[in-house]
Amino acid sequence: IREGPSDLLIATPGALSKVLKRKMLSLEKLLFLVLDEVDTLLDASFIDLVKDIVQHVFLKDVVQQAFLDPNFEDRDLAWDPKAQLVAMGATLPKGLSQMLNESADLSNFTILTGSSLHCLQLHVEQRFIRLKGGEKVAELLQLLKERGSSSGAVIIFCNRARTVNWLGYILEDHNINHLRLQGEIAADTRAGIFKAFQRGESDILLCTDIASRGLDTIRVELVINYDFPLTLPDYLHRVGRVGRIGSKFLGTAVSFVTHKWDVDLVRKIEIAARKKSPLPGLDIVVKESLRTKKKF
Known about the structure:
Pfam families: DEAD, Helicase_C
Shape: globular
Largest sheet: 6 strands, parallel
Distance between the termini: 36 Å
Organism: Micrurus corallinus (Brazilian coral snake)
Radius of gyration: 23 Å
CATH architecture of the largest domain: 3-Layer(aba) Sandwich
Mean pLDDT: 82
Order of helices and strands: HEHHHHEHEHEHEHEEHEHH
Keywords: ATP-binding, Helicase, Hydrolase, Nucleotide-binding
GO molecular function, one term: nucleic acid binding
InterPro entries: DEAD/DEAH_box_helicase_dom, Helicase_ATP-bd, Helicase_C-like, P-loop_NTPase
Strand content: 5-15%
């Protein structure tokens, strides 16, 4: 930024919000704002930062000032087209329409989706194993032992960082080479861990949902949900790490079902898989709000 204007800026919400508040950067001439992995950017961790950034992009105040102040000088700026917002993701979150309503006219937005939006990949086998919590470790070890020498890599998902660490100690006790990836690890270290996984230094990645979005790998043959995900979007993202374009493996997702509340999600997943239909409840709010211009 200090070296001069750039045509492209890639930033995290926190870093961009910080430089905007310090007035180190102006978005007045911005043409496109792209929110990649928008469902993640609109969760509780980032949504306030993203709202702040979007408010810097949609220059309502400048346009209003041009109309109200006869001495307003920079009328060219006021009549320049506003920046185009592009929100991209494998799922469209409920908070998207609410955030956009605060900054723009929703009737000006167009939703472009593929026919497979919110659908499970048909070539990926979905398996659910009902078992007690105390049986999960033994089942996991058995699945790992069944892998052949030509098998692809494995990603094991847990819901908490402490579970990743605890399970990692168990794998170490069984001399199972693995890598761990969770949010308590520094960002630069996490990047190095994933690169090591990509290079094949280990065929087993033990992680939280931090690895379920935005990380592309064609090495994975098996996803294991050691902890069943808490939401359908989380499930969709996790199983999306396997069977990706360019992979030689069709892929399998195995989920341990332990709690009563897991069963309800499993039923919805099984019905969607049989009907080859989208997972329920993921995009209703967005579509309704765009259609009715509903205020939240």
